[in-house]
Amino acid sequence: MKKESIRKRILSLRNSQSPFRAITKSYRIKEKLFRLPGFIKAKTILFYVSTKDEVETKYMIKEALSLCKRVVVPISDVKNKKLILSELKSLDELEPGAFNILEPKKEFFRPVSLEDIDLVIVPGVAFDKKGNRIGYGKGFYDRFLRSLRKDIPSIGLSYEFQIVDKIPVNDKDVIVNKIVTEKNTIEVKS
Predict the structure, then answer these.
(1) pLDDT tens, position by position, for the chain (190 residues)?
(2) Which one of 12, 18, 168, 173 is at 20 to 30 Å from 149 when CA atoms are compared?
(3) Residue 101 domain boundaries
(4) Residue 119's domain is classified under what CATH number?
(5) Residue 41 Cα distances to 36, 58, 110, 113, angstroms
(6) Whether the model pTM is above 0.90
């Protein structure tokens, strides 16, 4: 199956899920994520800011801040097709940015270097058990993950129905190290 048909099928399933089910599942995913040794140990965590229908991260961000974690979020640099990192101290600092994704307002931009990141939380439309992912087709996260040191773990957050048998890959695709769903934590074997 081609990436585009997988993307369409999974987005359709995700969009048809009730908000209550999405929040319930997202809460279970958060519970699993926050118990992982890699999460507990991480001091600086890059979170994506969830959009409609994605695994909800806003309350994860809020709780991580309350645990004295340093939270970093991406800003999409559309012109250069890359992610710029900014520290976030409160959800109140966010406003809609590129692709209507919440990003820090200009006055709250606090640049963070790649070297400071201990853990990356990755969005995705679909994942397979080998850690391959399908995003929205723009390549922002693949380019970003390629630029990270190899010892920085990446964790995809996914509803169980977003796990598919096999994702077609090319040399530009970058795998995640783990995938957390409401039912499972999938360890990717490299």
Answers:
(1) 799 999 999 999 999 999 999 999 999 999 999 999 999 999 999 999 999 899 999 999 999 999 999 999 999 999 998 999 999 999 999 999 988 999 999 999 999 999 999 999 999 999 999 999 999 888 899 999 999 988 899 999 999 999 999 999 888 889 999 999 999 999 997 6
(2) 168
(3) 3-187
(4) 3.40.50.10420
(5) 9, 21, 23, 19
(6) yes
